[in-house]
Amino acid sequence: MKDFRLPQELGVAGVVLAVGIIMGVISPAFRTLDNLEVLFLNGSVVLFLALGQTFVLLTGGIDLSVGSNIALTGVIAALTMQSGVPWWAAALIALLVGVVVGLFNGAMVYWGKMPPFIVTFATFGISASIPKILTDAKSVTVSDPMFAIFGRGSLFGIPIPVVMVLIAAVLCALFLRHSATGVHIYAVGGNPATSRLAGINVAKITVLVYVISGVTAACGGIITASRLMVGYPTAGSGTEQFYSIASAVVGGVSLFGGIGSIPGAFLGALLIAEVSNGMNVIGVSSYWQPLVIGVIILIGVLIDTNRKGFSMRRLLQHFTKTTDSAIDSDSPTQGDETLGHSTSVKDDQKIQPSLKEG
């Protein structure tokens, strides 16, 4: 019998639905359309970060620089617009900065042969310092009002950040599942040495995933600066990168690489945003939120570390063994009769030679 495994995303979707129902029962304000819009709008940045973090985690790496990348790209966009650059060009420059950060991380991880944790932690400090140096730690006002479209605009009533992240999620999911490069990403995360022997360009894959993470972080920086119409040099210094890792892991992306999906990470980010929004709506102190998210991460990592999956074959084998044991324990008479029969046969064998001798 072929193993039947329940999709990881199904369990996460069930948790998202259950949390939504519980929050809606506790507070009717949670289940309003206005709050739903706020939930997605506030969660759009974390959703973007979770998409990029998923690519990195699938190769067995980690990106701790995404939070400071938000500040760096947002401030760069604001400064370029102050210098007379059009709003759309400023957004492209911010994306280019995200690419550069990703290239640096990927190059240092692969060719520098340094642990991703160390490289991206160092990049976190560098990216956090540059905007403060450029602005003397002061906020930079966005001069072009058209830039607000990224954070405050809407399309058919749907906020533009939500539209952007939905499009990005679909494109990322299709790229991972239906392209050769996507398959190679999973392969590198599963076994880099075997992937190299199979002819996969591990260097290209490693750099690519960090570039994707840098671009998604830049999208988060553009949205943040656009919503506030200010480039903050300290933006993203809170729990953003913490939540991006939590979202991916809770969504079923393995910290050890090779396992996970974009839909799972998306649902994980949605769960984190839902919990955070729900706690705000019902009036729970913000000091409790990191604690709750920390517990969620712990549970996610615990499941990931002891991942065995749900297998119908294992279930049937366990059931069969249990049934056989129960039958054996319930029929001692049969065992005794067999033992008695074997004893009598041995006795007959002993008697027969003596008869012959007689």
UniProtKB/TrEMBL annotation:
Principal location listed in the UniProt entry: membrane
Alphabetic keyword roster: Cell membrane, Membrane, Transmembrane, Transmembrane helix
Transmembrane segments: 6-26, 38-58, 88-111, 117-134, 155-176, 207-230, 242-267, 287-305
One GO CC term on file: plasma membrane
Protein name, entry field: Branched-chain amino acid ABC transporter, permease protein
Membrane topology: Multi-pass membrane protein
Domain of life: Bacteria
GO molecular function, one term: transmembrane transporter activity
Biased composition (Basic and acidic residues): 344-358
Region (Disordered), start-end ranges: 324-358
Lineage: Bacteria, Bacillati, Actinomycetota, Actinomycetes, Actinomycetales
Composition bias type Polar residues, residue spans: 324-343
Record's subcellular location: Cell membrane
Pfam families xrefs: BPD_transp_2
Native source species: Mobiluncus holmesii ATCC 35242
